[in-house]
Amino acid sequence: MFKLLLIWRYFIQKRMVLFAALAVTLLVMMVLVVLSVMAGLLADTRHRNHRWTGDLVCYRDSLVGFGHYEAFLARLRRHPAVAEATPVVRTFALISPQSEPVQIFGVRLAEFCRATGFGQTLYYQHDRADPDFRVPPAARRFADEPPLTAEQRRRGFIAGSLLLAQRYTGRWSKSALRSLRAQGLEPAGNLGWTLTVFGLTRQGNLAGSGIGDQQRFWYVDDSDSLLVDLDTTAVYVDFDVLQGLCYMDGGQDNLPRANEIRIKLRDGVALADGRDQIAALWDDFLRSDRLESGRELLSDVKVQTWKQYRRNFIAPAEREKILMIVVFGMIGLVAVFIIFALFYMVVTEKIKDLGILKSVGASGWGISQIFLGFGILVGWIGAVLGTLLGCLIVWNSNRIERALGLKLFDPDLYTIDRIPDVVDFGQAGLIAAVAVLASLLGAVLPAWRAAKLQVVEALRLE
Amino acid sequence: MEPSDSIILEARNLHKSYPMGRGRQDVLRGVNLAVRRGEFLAIMGASGSGKSTLLHICGVLDRPDKGQVFFEGRDLFALSSAAQDALRSRDIGFVFQFYHLLPELNVEENILLPLMVNSSIWGWLTRRRSARQRARQLIQTVGLLDQARQKPATLSGGERQRAALARALVEDPVLLLADEPTGNLDSRAGMGILEHLKRLNANGQTIVMVTHDKDVARLADRIVHLQDGKIA
Description:
The structure holds two protein chains of two kinds. Chain A is built from 16 helices and eleven strands. The two termini of chain A are 27 Å apart. In chain A, strand 3 and strand 4 (100-107) form a beta hairpin. Chain A is an alpha+beta fold. The longest helix of chain A is centred in the N-terminal third of the chain and has 39 residues, at 15-53. Chain B is α/β, with parallel strands linked by helices. Chain B has helices at residues 51-58, 81-90, 107-117, 121-141, 157-169, 187-202, 214-217, and strands spanning 7-20, 23-36, 40-45, 66-71, 74-75, 92-95, 175-179, 206-211, 222-227, 230-231. In chain B, strands 6-7-8-3-9-10 form a six-stranded mixed sheet, with helices on both faces. Chain B has a four-stranded antiparallel sheet with strand order 2-1-4-5, covered by helices on one side. In chain B, a hairpin with a 2-residue loop joins strand 1 (7-20) and strand 2. The interface between A and B is medium-sized, with 26 and 33 residues.
């Protein structure tokens, strides 16, 4: 009983101890804020990459692509784990006349939006059930030109948001895009890009004339995926149009080709399980007797999860988070030493009290429990206050930023327009538990010293 | 030879030395002492003669280099550390020259301290009422009713020593050891403490008191002198 009484009295009457609790509070708060923001940024990065990619990708690194994709798509669509699957042609192109290089994706837009979250990134056709590349009837290059033909009206394009802004304002900036829209940028206008695409034969040689094939496309929408590598370089056009332009439509060798198949798994199917099932399906497909030609293009096709497919873009954020944990782990270690130093000072100051306690029959273990309990109390109070303070700061981080007139992440420079403000309570609990443990560790040596104290020596100190 | 029934405390051939420079200084050199139940014994000696060391060893606050101390027939230094702790809290009460009250606790809490040390949380909850009554009774006996809620820092030397005396008595110990109990007090306050001790002894309390003051020692039933590390 005396232990509880003394723990509490030492806590409320010793300013040094309040400083120790304050140190723990500040440490917990700081770690919670930084890790919450880092975790938020990482979660955003993952979400955006997942949204753009879909759950699984079946692809080949070579731009030549692979054949028999329709047959495999038919199998995929019958598979119980698959909710949607869609083919993609992926290559590079130049925008005339500046010959600006871009990535170009040929997609069946409605199907692609069902297989991925691409529809959420579109500006005009945001989350529409049936988005398309159809060019508005009024679009034309010059006012005196005749209206577009039905064939031409299939050649709409969706541009990466920052690519569009840069091309017309010279700036990779969202505000530039907003001012473009204010000046009349819209799909019904006459904005058109001439794209030069270099098609490849099955053998990997330049197809057609060998100097690339040009075609004019009309702007129908833009995509703000918040993935810089795509928003600054990606152009999306109709799958059939690009497949034809790349000589991948089977016109010459009767083997239509695609570069990727994007797959959405049904709800409840775990990502790794889904990947294993689709990889097994692909292996089974490869053994099929009906694949008469183009087998050489199928051997190195991979089935990957979105995490594997976009690992180069997710890994830096994950590494940053790990680095932060390491850095704050080291700061935590410093905090343990601060607590240790403070407790050691408290023990030194209270040595006579410990002698008195021993003289009235307190055991060495009982006395060391006072300091261990003391450590737990300081850690617990610091952890609770730090967690509360950290949560308040994280939840109100954007308000605080506005109130201070700051802009930590300039939306013109970063794809982040707001500070992540979600606290992971599991993580918060873990940080608090580590803080309590650290405080306990800081108290162990002083407690041991207190337990070993010789009564007479302690009482002689006056 | 085992100590007789009327002997409550017996020290046999106690030796104790302390490091001094490169060597050691002998403080006790074969001290033999017996204290009878109900006796008021005063140990006198010059400063540094080893009086306090002898008292600390008799109260298991310190260990002798050699020799034995029997308390109610038990060899104190053959007991486990837990048994020694229990003995200090229940059977032996201490009064020190410098009071040694905990500054964080008020007078009543300081007096209750030995009772709290002996209780688990549950045990304390069940005996709290009777413990408080016992503390109140002692507070009244030593005349500190008005100061019960005060911290030691606000009390006079005499009041602190009376609080320390009440703490020493709260577990109704068999033996009270007092180390220069008036050494830090003015004569009036010292007299008050001595009157308390005398009254306690009259009620059967065994007391061993260390002092260098002949007038103080005169109140005891028996006086022994410690000289050159031995009982003279």
